[in-house]
Write a structure and sequence with these properties.
This protein is an alpha/beta fold. The protein contains 17 helices and 25 strands. Bound molecules: nicotinamide-adenine-dinucleotide.
């Protein structure tokens, strides 16, 4: 049995012999134990991060030196990619092919944001007043609490850690209680890269640890990824304490296929949109909007291909669809399948548990003739369940796509360039993919409209989430004014 301890101020520490279990979703068995943190551990970690922010090696380092450390860290992640990917698979059951490509990609976040570290600059402001020089500094926010979910633990952690370090912040990470192991392995690399103690800390546990972090007076910013239900709680708690906050939340993304699309590409896009990662991605294309004129032909092709999905061991290169990460999520996905049937959606594929080892498998499931007002079209399932909704024209497609409390991603499949532009302008979501789906990059901003979140990760915008602007005024001595008036 593996045991993973927390990481505070450069040391691995346990928690008075309190541990909680981590399950392998493929076997349904406990494979590791994780130290159970509490408010005292949160306090130690936040104080370490606060010290490191305010004094010592990290505080004194130039931005270029910070960038070099980040580059070194990127190299170490590259070296350890396969090992870290395997740990992710044991914990979250996603396919090794996906986790390995994520891990091989993560170094780019540290190279890109490491390169950005010494290009963060303020500006000299041309003033309306004589006798002053005014300029701005872009300063780090301070201690960041990064709270993450279980679906892509290290990728989503990197989306926060890399820009935060580039800005000069320090961090306390709180990974999901279902997938903590990879984060605890990941932080080992910080020491090897040469980061001073306290720059990065990890406290493990459930929502009580997350809540203690948000409440801690020395935490300046909360960077959260998770469900909108938890995001609401986090946002409220942050508001009560006037903390900076960014939220990456859920989605119910429309994948829209027009009759002028290349249908084979669109079928592949629809399938990878919903069945990759067993639908457990925030950007899952969980609503498939099909133009009526191609509905029947498209459904035929879709069902034929989806029906061939190979379920199995996520560590095997042959497997196409893995298990659901947690028992709770498995029950939730099955309950939504029942809800959809009660609502009158027409089941065309799957529709229940799949027997595969002892793991938590759900059959790839497709419902047709879904009405966008149904719960199956409005609520995030976070599983391999697709809702197909027919439409007649562009106008109706936009209306259905935007009739959602979410706005994270959207796909448009068309050969008409004008339509591609019109649709991308009119859809209210943080990302629109045309003739592709699920592409992300460290260089391109990612985030949600509406209830899908606040703020942006990735790209140049991401570093702004960890900075604040200071305005500095210098009196050059040329100004003489009445001290009783506003200057
Ligand atoms: P979750 O909201 O249940 O948990 C996320 C994290 O918040 C966990 O670490 C959890 O321990 C912590 N948490 C729970 N309650 C808390 C509280 N009261 N205070 C502080 N922290 C608390 O989400 P999940 O089930 O782990 O992940 C799935 C969700 O994440 C889905 O809704 C999915 O769409 C979303 N997600 C969004 C993105 C994105 O970038 N937009 C990416 C991945 C996942």
């Amino acid at each position: 049995m593996h045991r993973y301890r927390m990481f505070i101020d450069g040391q691995f520490v346990d928690a008075d012999d309190n541990w909680f279990d981590s399950y392998n979703p493929f076997t349904g068995q406990v494979w590791a134990q994780i130290a159970q943190g509490d408010a005292d551990d949160v306090d130690l970690a936040v104080r370490a991060a606060h010290r490191s922010f305010n004094e010592g090696a990290w505080h004194d380092m130039s931005a270029s030196q910070r960038g070099r450390l980040m580059h070194r860290l990127g190299d170490l992640i590259e070296r350890e990619a396969r090992r870290l990917a395997e740990i992710e698979v044991l914990d979250n059951g996603k396919l090794i092919s996906e986790m390995e490509s994520q891990l091989n990609y993560i170094p780019q976040w540290f190279y890109y944001f490491g390169g950005l570290a010494d290009k963060i600059q303020g500006s000299v402001i041309p003033l309306d007043k004589k006798g002053y020089v005014n300029f701005t500094r872009r300063e780090p926010l301070g201690v960041v609490a990064a709270i993450t979910p279980w679906n892509s633990p290290l990728l989503l952690t990197a989306w926060k850690v890399a820009p935060a370090l580039a800005a000069g912040c320090t961090l306390v990470l709180k990974p999901s209680e279902f997938t903590s192991a990879s984060t605890l392995e990941f932080v080992r690399l910080f020491e090897e890269a040469g980061f001073p103690p306290g720059v990065i800390n990890v406290v493990t546990g459930g929502k009580e640890v997350g809540a203690a972090l948000i409440e801690h007076p020395l935490v300046d910013k909360i960077a959260f990824t998770g469900s909108d239900a938890t995001g609401r709680v986090v946002n409220r708690a942050a508001a009560d304490r006037f903390k900076h906050v960014s939220l990456e939340l859920g989605g119910k993304s429309p994948n829209i296929v027009f009759d002028d699309a290349k249908l084979d590409d669109a079928v592949n896009g629809a399938i990878s949109g919903i069945f990759a990662a067993s639908g457990q991605t925030c950007i899952a294309g969980s609503r498939l909007l099909l133009q009526r004129s191609i509905h029947d032909e498209f459904m035929q092709r879709l069902l034929a291909l989806a029906g061939t999905a190979r379920l199995g061991d996520p560590l095997s290169a042959e497997t196409q669809v893995g298990p659901i990460t947690t028992r709770q999520q498995y029950d939730k996905v099955l309950s939504y399948i029942q809800i959809a049937q009660q609502e009158g959606a027409r089941l065309r594929l799957g529709g229940g548990p799949a027997s595969c080892g002892n793991g938590w498998f759900v059959q790839p499931t497709i419902f047709d003739r879904v009405d966008n007002r149904m719960r199956i079209a409005q609520e995030e399932v976070f599983g391999p369940v697709l809702a197909v909704i027919p439409f007649d024209d562009e106008q109706e497609a936009v209306a259905i796509a935007n009739d959602s409390c979410y706005g994270l991603g959207a796909g448009v499949w068309t050969s008409d360039i004008g339509r591609a532009f019109r649709m991308s302008e009119r859809i209210r979501s943080g990302t629109v993919w045309v003739n592709t789906y699920r592409a992300v990059s460290y260089m391109s901003p990612f985030g949600g409209y509406k209830q899908s979140g606040i703020g942006r990760e990735n790209g140049m915008d991401a570093v702004d989430e960890y900075l604040q602007t200071k305005s500095i005024w210098i009196n050059t001595g040329a100004s003489t004014s009445n001290p009783f008036t506003i200057r």
